[in-house]
Amino acid sequence: MKINSISGLRYLVKDLDRTAEFYQLLGFRIGKRDESEVTCYINWFWVIFSVDPAGAAAAPDLGPALYLKVDDIDDSYNALLANGLSPASEPRKDRSGRKEFVLLDPDGNSLVFFTK
């Protein structure tokens, strides 16, 4: 398995408007936006900011996550299994059509492996 790049992060926020304005002032470009998410870019690196009106307990998969781009999602998934690791999810398509799966580190932080 080869990780190509650290492509982005995801964070929960309380106020999308305030967050978008703050990051835009820092020089981030605002990308896709809807009522629950805004994506901000610096070059190719992105940060997705999400609000969760029901509370984080209702959607634990929205917490902080590090996104790692790989060439082949199925090979990467199988390589982790072969090394004795247990991903928290199987490869599946996300809202944007990327195929991804989640692996939790020893402290419970989400590593999202994805391919386009």
From TrEMBL:
It comes from the Bacteria. Residues 5-116 form the VOC domain. InterPro entries: Glyas_Bleomycin-R_OHBP_Dase, Glyas_Fos-R_dOase_dom, VOC_core. Gene3D superfamilies: 2,3-Dihydroxybiphenyl 1,2-Dioxygenase, domain 1. This is VOC family protein. It comes from Plantactinospora siamensis.
